[in-house]
Amino acid sequence: MSSRTVIRGGLVITASDEIHADVLIEDGRIAALAASATPAADAFTADRTIDATGKYVIPGGVDAHTHMELPFGGTFASDTFETGTRAAAWGGTTTIVDFAVQGVGQSLRQGLDAWHAKAEGTCAIDYGFHMIVSDVNDETLKEMDLLVEEGITSFKQFMAYPGVFYSDDGQILRAMQRSADNGGLIMMHAENGIAIDVLVEQALARGETDPRFHGEVRKALLEAEATHRAIRLAQVAGAPLYVVHVSATEAVTELARARDEGLNVFGETCPQYLFLSTDNLAEPDFEGAKYVCSTPLRPKEHQAALWRGLRTNDLQVVSTDHCPFCFTGQKELGRGDFSKIPNGLPGVENRMDLLHQAVLDGHISRRRWIEIACATPARMFGLYPKKGTIAPGADADVVIYDPAAEQVMSAGTHHMNVDYSAYEGKRVTGRVETVLSRGVPVITDREYTGRAGHGVYTPRSTCQYLT
After folding, report:
1. pLDDT tens-digit readout, 391-404
2. Are 136 and 465 in contact (CB under 8 A)?
3. In this structure, which of 283, 314, 324, 394 has its CB flanked by the most CB atoms within 10 Å?
4. What is the pLDDT of residues 343-393, one digit of tens each?
5. Contact at 8 Å (CB) between 445 and 433?
6. What are the tens digits of pLDDT across the range 171-198?
7. C-alpha to C-alpha distance for 436 and 296, rounded to whole angstroms
8. How far apart are CA 356 and CA 451, in angstroms?
9. What is the mean pLDDT of residues 199-219?
10. How far apart, in Å, are the Cα atoms of 463 and each of 184, 238, 240?
11. Which residues lie closer than 8 Å to 6 by C-beta, 6 or more apart?
């Protein structure tokens, strides 16, 4: 049975255009756009009409870096695929790309099957997977080819966390060589984990156990060194590289240099690095544990370089690295030893609003907001133009956004399954009003109208930016 919806009177914003237009949706896809109050728009007929007068009509956000139910440090991320995708929808995100994990000694297939089992039938919005590669061997490399063919087109490696996810330079090079052949994209957690472990041991021996020391031992120079090394390994392999959660001026400099050389090197940052700092890590009474993530929060002076990188396109994407752990019972595992604090912050619900605030603060333009939060992540990970834009043929993942509504971010009002907000008390202007996922209302006038299982697994093509 065919269904038609028309969204009337809003300002449609994409990465490339802003136009007052009516949007016709048919059977879950964008069917047509026409300038508002014109004969073409007036001719749109529908079963349901949404009045977007005075509002923005934007593509649903694409968050290309989340960790639902991730096992870490003897516990699990507190958001399930059900709670995490519901919270994402509340924040105007309609697609996530989460990370399936290969355990050491496992095949990629075993890890991927486990994540499919977690997510299937539970998600409120559409989802895809990257693959964390923890054990590079001949069989793993063959499996990478097979996964690319079935729509898992990106693979994450870690230069950090020895004994858990860590890959050495030889393993990284081999995986990069394989991705150069099969079209996959290597995503890199770029920190020198071997050196960091030495600094952790030395800090603890000195009795430096508080959360702030997490940031002090994970030095910006060790992020920059690893970023440089990853870039040069990718250059040797002839492979593209995507560096995740870039936090420091020195790492941005490495990315900018590589891009100036014409290399297929890309960078992502996250809201926590744009809006939070080591001041948060230093909060007293162990409150700083709430802000422990890796790469760590940096001193505030690094924020200017990140905003500049987003404006100059040396950084292309803002994702969340959403990996929440409750303060009570989870973050508290590290009382007396910062190295035992589970690494991760909640944020999947906050990203679109924080970036809209950045528009109002003059850091980025409205179209750049949509570019870094919707269109570019969709292109980077093979989802565009199905996701990330409002254009005929695209999935009708559409957000009606009130740019004038004011809100105060708080654990008391958010929908993430975590007992604190990283942005507690922060006032922002702009708020999601209504969210459609493939034409189906998931949030309707600030009420949740979605359901677990509406979201479907979405295979991806390869990166659309490679030269």
Report:
1. 999 999 999 999 99
2. no
3. 324
4. 999 999 999 999 999 999 999 999 999 999 999 999 999 999 999 999 999
5. yes
6. 999 999 999 999 999 999 999 999 999 9
7. 34
8. 27
9. 98
10. 8, 15, 9
11. 22, 23, 24, 25, 44, 45, 46, 48, 49, 50
The residue type of 284 is P
Strand partners, 59: 398
Phi then psi dihedrals of residue 380, to 5 deg = -60, -35
- Token duo for residue 120: 């299937």
- The DSSP letter of residue 68 is T
- Residues, the chain: 467
CA distance 186 to 286: 36
Which ranges in 243-302 belong to alpha helices (H)? Answer: 249-260, 271-275, 278-281
pLDDT score at 2: 77
What does the block give as tokens for 179?
């991705």
Q: In sequence order, which residues have a C-beta less than 8 Å from that of residue 220 and are 6 or more positions away?
A: 247, 248, 249, 250, 251, 298, 302
CA-wise closest residue to 186 among 198, 195, 174, 194: 174
Q: Tokens at residue 345, please?
A: 């912050």
User: Cis peptide before 385, with omega less than 30 degrees from 0?
Assistant: yes
Q: Where are the alpha helices (DSSP H) in 313-454?
A: 351-360, 366-370, 376-380
> To the nearest 10°, the Cα dihedral for 106, 119, 379, 371?
-130
What are the two backbone dihedrals, phi and then psi, of residue 69, each rounded to the nearest 5 degrees? 60, 30
Share of the chain above pLDDT 90, in %: 97
Q: Which pLDDT score, from 0 to 100, does residue 206 have?
A: 98
Q: Identify which of 318, 344, 456, 348 has the alpha carbon closest to the alpha carbon of residue 397.
A: 456
Q: How confident is the model at residue 1 (pLDDT cuts 50, 70, 90)?
A: low
CB 324 within 8 A of CB 416: yes
From residue 427, alpha-carbon distances to 158, 260, 352, 360, 408 in Å are: 35, 38, 14, 12, 4
| Closest by Cα among 55, 47, 66 to 8 | 55
pLDDT at 278 over 80: yes
* DSSP designation for 291: G
Please give the Cα distance from 313 to 456 (Å, whole number): 31
Q: Confirm whether pTM is higher than 0.90.
A: yes
Q: Which helix (H) or strand (E) holds 126?
A: strand 126-132
Q: Which residues 6+ apart lie within 8 Å of 404 measured at CB?
A: 54, 429, 430
Q: Which helix (H) or strand (E) holds 80?
A: none
**For residues 369 and 357, what is the distance between their CA atoms, to the nearest angstrom?**
10
What's the token pair of residue 296?
Answer: 């760590």
DSSP sequence for 331-366: GGGGTT-GGGSPP-B--TTTHHHHHHHHHHTTSS-H
